[in-house]
Specification:
11 strands, eight-stranded mixed beta sheet, globular
C-alpha cells in the first residue's frame, strides 16, 4: 500500500514536535532552538452581533475587520505590552488599517501591490487613517522587516506577508487579530514567536474568543484545539456570566475543561 503524502500542516506540526527538550525548558530542533509558547485568551463579548445573518467573507468583514468593539479590545490588549516587541497579525490590509486607527504608533506591513495601495488610500480618504501612509515598495517592506528583525522597530501590524520566511528572534508577543482557524495557519503564525534570544524564556501568543457570533466562536474553539494538540499552555478567562473562577488550561491536556 502506497503511503499517503504528508500534508503541509502535518509536516509543520511534525517539525515542531520532533525536537529535544533542554533542561531549561527550551527545545532544540536540528540546529535551531525554540522556546515554549503560552496562549493568553481574551473574550470579545458584545450586546449585538454585527455579523448576524452573514456568512463567508461578509461575516469576517463585519464580525472581524470592521468590528470596532473587537478592534478596541485588541488595541487595549496591545497597549498593555509597552516595552515588549509586539506583532499583530491580520488577514487583510483593510483590517490592518482599521486597527491602526486605534494604534497609530504601530507600523503597517503588507504585500506590494496596487490593490493593497488602493485599499490604504481608500482607508485614508474615508477617514479611517487620519494620516496618509507612504506607498509600500519592495525597499520599504525590506526595511520594515530588517528593522523588526534587529529589534529597532517594536510594534507592527502585518498581513500574511510575514506568515513565513521571517526570523524574529526578539519577538516576545504575537497578537492574533486575524480570526483564521486552519491547522497550517495555527502553526505557521504562532511559529514567529518560537525563536530563542537572550533572556527570552517563552513566547506569548494572544488570541480572542469571539463569543458574540456562533460561527466565529467555533473558529476560536478550533484554534484552541490546535494549540492544545501542540501542548501549549492556554489561559482562558470565564465568560462574564459564568461566575466561575479563572483557571489555566494545562499544556498538552486533551480533556476539555468547562471554561473552554
Amino acid at each position: 500500500v502506497t503511503p499517503k503524502p504528508e500534508t503541509l500542516a502535518s509536516a509543520i506540526v511534525r517539525r515542531l514536535k520532533d525536537d529535544i527538550v533542554n533542561p531549561d525548558g527550551t527545545r532544540r530542533l536540528a540546529k535551531r532552538v525554540i522556546v515554549p509558547l503560552e496562549v493568553e485568551w481574551h473574550r470579545v463579548e458584545m450586546d449585538t452581533n454585527p455579523a448576524s445573518g452573514l456568512e463567508g467573507i461578509l461575516r469576517k468583514k463585519h464580525g472581524i475587520w470592521k468590528n470596532e468593539e473587537r478592534n478596541r479590545i485588541i488595541a487595549q490588549v496591545a497597549r498593555s505590552y509597552e516595552s515588549e516587541q509586539v506583532l499583530i497579525t491580520v488577514e487583510t490590509v483593510e483590517h490592518a488599517c482599521r486597527l491602526k486607527q486605534f494604534l497609530p504608533e504601530y507600523e503597517l506591513c503588507y504585500s506590494v501591490s496596487e490593490d493593497s495601495h488602493n485599499t490604504v488610500q481608500t482607508m485614508h480618504s474615508s477617514g479611517v487613517l487620519p494620516e496618509p501612509e507612504p506607498k509600500m515598495t519592495p525597499d520599504r517592506m525590506f526595511n520594515i522587516k530588517r528593522n523588526f528583525e534587529l529589534g529597532l522597530t517594536k510594534k507592527v501590524i502585518a498581513t500574511s506577508v510575514w506568515n513565513r520566511g521571517v526570523n524574529f528572534h526578539q519577538l516576545q508577543v504575537l497578537i492574533r487579530a486575524d480570526g483564521l482557524a486552519t491547522s497550517v495557519a495555527d502553526t505557521q503564525i504562532p511559529g514567529r514567536l518560537s525563536r530563542l534570544s537572550e533572556g527570552k524564556t517563552h513566547g506569548k501568543l494572544v488570541d480572542f474568543l469571539d463569543d458574540f457570533d456562533d460561527g466565529l466562536a467555533r473558529a476560536a474553539k478550533r484554534r484552541m484545539a490546535h494549540y492544545r494538540s501542540k501542548g501549549w499552555k492556554q489561559i482562558v478567562p470565564p465568560a462574564s456570566n459564568s461566575g466561575k473562577d479563572h483557571a489555566p488550561i494545562l499544556a498538552g491536556s486533551r480533556r476539555r475543561r468547562k471554561s473552554d
